Amino acid sequence: MMITEELERIKSSGLERCLTMIQGPQGPVVRIAGQDVLLLCSNDYLGLACHPALKEAAIKAIERYGTGAGASRLVSGSMEPHHALEERIARFKGSEAALVFNSGYEANLGLITALARRGSRETDIFSDKANHASIVDGCILSMAKVKRYPTRDVSALETMLKRSSARTKLIITDGIFSMDGAIAPIKEIASLSDKYDAMFIVDDAHATGVLGATGRGTLEHAGVAHPSIIQMGTFGKALGSFGAYVAGSKELVKLLINRARPFIYSTALPPAVCAASIAAIEIIENEPERRLRLWQNVSSFKGAAQDAMLDTMNSLTQIIPIVTGDADRTMRISKALLDKGIFIQGIRPPTVPHGASRLRVSISAAHDAEVIEKAAYVIKETCNEFH
Ligand code: PMP
C-alpha cells in the first residue's frame, strides 16, 4: 500500500517526524510526559503566548463576537477586529495599509502568487536560498521563473538582476533567517531594488517585535524606511497569538483582496485571535523592557555557548543553531537532552541542507538567564556523548 511504503521510506532515511505533546500552556518551562522541562525551541520570543492581557482581550472578544468568523472576509467574515488589527499593524509597521492572513504560510503563498505572473518574460523572482519553505512554496505555486541566490550574497543577487529582462522583478528574503538566525542585508538589497526597479518583500516573521529599537522589525534594525518595501510577518511568534499580515501600500492591499487565493477562499481568522494580536502590539510598544530582556538572555546564552565551545554559526539573533551534522545523530542528541530536562527540537532535511542538521535553540525574554547558561554546558556535554 502506498501510504505504508511511503512511511517506511521516510523512516529508513532517518527523517521520520513525530509530535511531542506539551501538557499545559507554552512557557519557559513546559510539561512533557509528566516531567517539567526547559523549553528551548519555541518562537514565543517575548513570552506573550500566555500573557494575561492577551487572554483577557481574547475572552472579551469571544463574549462580544463569538468564536468563528463564519466565512471568508469577502463573503460575510470581515469583522471589526480584523479591520482594527489591520489598522494597528499598519501603524506599527509604518505602512500605509495592511491585510491580515490566516497564517504566515498563507500570507507568503497569497502575496507571491498575487504579484508574480507566469510566462517567460513576465516575472523573475529572486529568492534567497535560505528562505522559509512558505516562500519556496509560494514561488513554485506562482509558476514564475525563480532564481535562488546564495544566502545573503548581494553581489550574486546583483549579477542575476543585471541579466534579467523580465517585466517584473521581485526580490524576496527572510529578515531573520528561520534556521540560522542570520540577518538579511536589507540596506544593500533595498538599494539594488531601486537600481534595478525590482519589488522587494521582507519576511519579518522572526523579527517582528524583536529587531529594531522599538521592535518594528528588520527595516527598523537596518535604518531603512522605504515605503515601497513590502513587509509580511506573523502574529504567531513574538506576538504570542496567531495569523499573519502583509503591510504595504493601499493599492497592494486592494490587489491582494482580489488576487490572493488563500485570503479569498479561506474562512477568516476568529475575531478573538485578532483581539489578542492587538493586545500583543500594545505590549510591545509599551513594554520595551521585554525586548531588552530577550537580548540580555540571548547574550547570556551565547556567552555560555562560546565558553562551552559550541558552534553557533552566523547567528546574530534569538535563533541560535547548533550544527550537529547527521540527521540521526541530531535526533539522538535531542532525545538525550529531553531525558536530561531540556527540550530542543532537531531540525533535519528538507528544512535544512543534508549534512547540516542542527539543534535550533530559540531564546525567550521569559527564560531565566542562569538556567539557559547552564543549559549551554549540558548541550555541549550531550553532543560529546554522540559521535
Ligand atoms: N516565514 C518564516 C520565515 C517562518 O519562519 C514562518 C514560520 N515558521 C512562516 C513564514 C510562517 O508563519 P506561520 O507560522 O504564521 O504560518
Task: Describe the protein.
It is a single chain. This protein has 15 helices and 13 strands. The mean pLDDT is 96. It is α/β, with parallel strands linked by helices and 387 residues long. It is globular and about 55 Å long. The protein has a seven-stranded mixed beta sheet, with helices on both faces. Strands 1-2-11 form a three-stranded mixed beta sheet, with helices on both faces. Bound molecules: 4'-deoxy-4'-aminopyridoxal-5'-phosphate. The site of 4'-deoxy-4'-aminopyridoxal-5'-phosphate has 14 residues, from helix 5. 4'-deoxy-4'-aminopyridoxal-5'-phosphate (PMP) binds next to helix 5.
Mean pLDDT: 96
Specify the number of helices: 15
**Which radius of gyration do the C-alpha atoms yield?**
21 Å
Please provide the count of β strands.
13
How far apart lie the N and C ends?
36 Å
Work out the oligomeric state of the chains in this entry: single chain
Shape: globular
Percent range of helical residues = 40-55%
Q: Extract low-pLDDT stretches.
A: none
Structural class determined from secondary elements: alpha/beta
Main beta-sheet strand count, sense and barrel state: 7 strands, mixed
Q: What series of H and E elements makes up the topology? A: HEEHHHEHEHEHEHEHEEHHHHEHEEEH
Query: Largest sheet, order of strands side by side?
Result: 3-9-8-7-6-4-5
Ligand types: 4'-deoxy-4'-aminopyridoxal-5'-phosphate
Q: What percentage of the residues does DSSP assign to strands (E)?
A: 15-25%
